[in-house]
Amino acid sequence: MPATDHSADLALLLEAARAAAEIACAFRAPEVWDKPNDGGPVCEADLAVDAMLRERLGAARPAYGWLSEETADAPERLAAERIFIVDPIDGTRAYLEGSRDWAHSLAVAEQGRITAACVLLPQRNLLYTATAGGGARLNGAPIRASGETDPACATLLGPRLAMSPEHWSGGEVPPLRRAFRSALAWRLCLLAEARFDAMLTIRPTWEWDIAAGSLILTEAGGIATDRRGAALTFNKPHPQSDGVLAGGALHPVLLGLLDPAAA
Fold first, then answer.
1. Among 83, 117, 135, 196, which one has the highest count of C-beta atoms within 10 angstroms of its own C-beta?
2. Which top-rank group of organisms is this from (predicted)?
């Protein structure tokens, strides 16, 4: 198979993300139901965006595999050299509440590595993009992750669970300020533009939540791993990572403070 033009893949993702925004923003009171096994809410807009993305992206790149939060998984994707990894609406709860803090998160992975990515927050007019080796941008301008290394001067994006003593060596929680944003993809992008210094999730994390944002952060000079420091890989048979630790220069500092034996 010929080498991929990552910029062409990114252009395709951008077109699809903008079409997704048109669909999502057109809904006023979408029907909502709960996913099985406490999987959270899903709504008509999620499925409408997912169907459009699968049709549009699949028609443009029929050899690429497909992994999406709103499509039943199929083993055929594992044989694909390249794959789309998509979260049609990242932050469905925020979307349903009328918040602006939701995103379309689209990525291409090649042999387990993300090569093109975009995260679009249509109601905030924020468009984050990256290609492997091509740097990261916000609305077309280059961005760079934080250089902060002192936890006492840093802010961590994450749920309350991330600050529980049992996850930190000796039960000593570092003196971090904590903030929260609904969409995981946006959290990674906020790190990429140095609005925050680090991010931590403890629970297993789905690939579609972090695929696009992880490339945007790393291309901005940051680091994204699982919570124990292992490299993130994509298109795995079970598409989850063991949580996520991400940040700029603070990442290795926090990795040294986390308890590697924590459950």
1. 117
2. Bacteria
Domain count, the chain: 2
φ/ψ of residue 204, rounded to 5: -50, 140
19/15 Cα distance (integer angstroms): 6
pLDDT in the model for residue 33? 85
For residue 240, the enclosing domain spans 151-257
- Quick one: pLDDT at residue 31? 86
Q: Are residues 187 and 225 in the same domain?
A: yes
- Do 159 and 202 belong to one domain? yes
Report the relative pairing of strands 205-206 and 240-241 from DSSP bridges. antiparallel
Q: Are residues 107 and 188 part of one domain?
A: no
* 112 and 175 part of one domain: no
DSSP 220: T
Residues 199 and 131 placed together within one structural domain of the fold: no
β strands within 49-125, DSSP E: 65-68, 82-90, 103-110, 113-121
Residues 101, 183 contacting (CB under 8 angstroms): yes
Average pLDDT over residues 241-256: 98
Assess whether pLDDT exceeds 50 at residue 1. Answer: no
119 and 221 housed in the same domain: no
pLDDT in tens, 109-124: 999 999 999 999 999 9
User: What integer best gives the mean pLDDT of the chain?
Assistant: 95
Burial 107-134 (b: 16+ CB within 10 A, else e): bbbbeeebbbbbbbbbbeebbbbbbbee
Domain boundary among 142, 163, 191: 142
21-50 mean pLDDT: 88
